[in-house]
Specification:
Order of helices and strands: EHEEEHEHEEE
Helix content: 10-25%
CATH architecture: Roll
Number of strands: 8
Bound molecules: zinc ion
CATH topology: 2,3-Dihydroxybiphenyl 1,2-Dioxygenase, domain 1
Shape: globular
Number of helices: 3
Structural class: alpha+beta
């Protein structure tokens, strides 16, 4: 793992959360991106070397909506940058971690991403991401 690439935060109302986080970080969101396959709209803030990714649901059966129903707003996942996502997935699977994705998929912000199941990481949804 190279660094924490971003921290994903589940929010109900993207515009309201953007306003709050812009104040908190003293910087504006630099982009919004819709990830249609996941039913989520994202908004990114730069914080030094890393980013905050706000995630709001766009459909009722979005995984983010399910998360909000179950746990409410808050930290949704931690994303680590890796150089070779396929190799890292294999390595972690061999070490006993459970992968949610068998192959990487296309994430927001021009990344290939894959997730580790929170059951195998002590309750934290972990995202691996590699620049495309
Ligand atoms: Zn993410």
């Amino acid at each position: 793992m190279n660094k924490i690439e971003h921290i994903g935060i589940a929010v109900k109302d993207l515009a309201e959360a953007e306003e709050k986080w812009a104040k908190l970080l003293n910087t504006l969101s630099y982009k919004r991106e819709l990830v249609e396959s996941e039913g989520v709209i994202t908004s990114f803030f730069k914080v030094g070397e890393t980013k905050i990714e706000l995630l709001a649901p766009t459909t009722a059966n979005s995984p983010i909506q399910k998360f909000l129903d179950k746990r409410g707003e808050g930290i949704h996942h931690i994303a680590f940058a890796v150089d070779n996502i396929e190799a890292k997935m294999k390595e972690l699977a061999n070490q006993g971690f459970t992968l949610i994705n068998e192959t990487p998929k296309k994430g927001a912000d021009r990344k290939k991403v894959a997730f580790l199941h929170p059951k195998s990481t002590g309750g934290i949804l972990v995202e691996l991401c590699q620049d495309l």
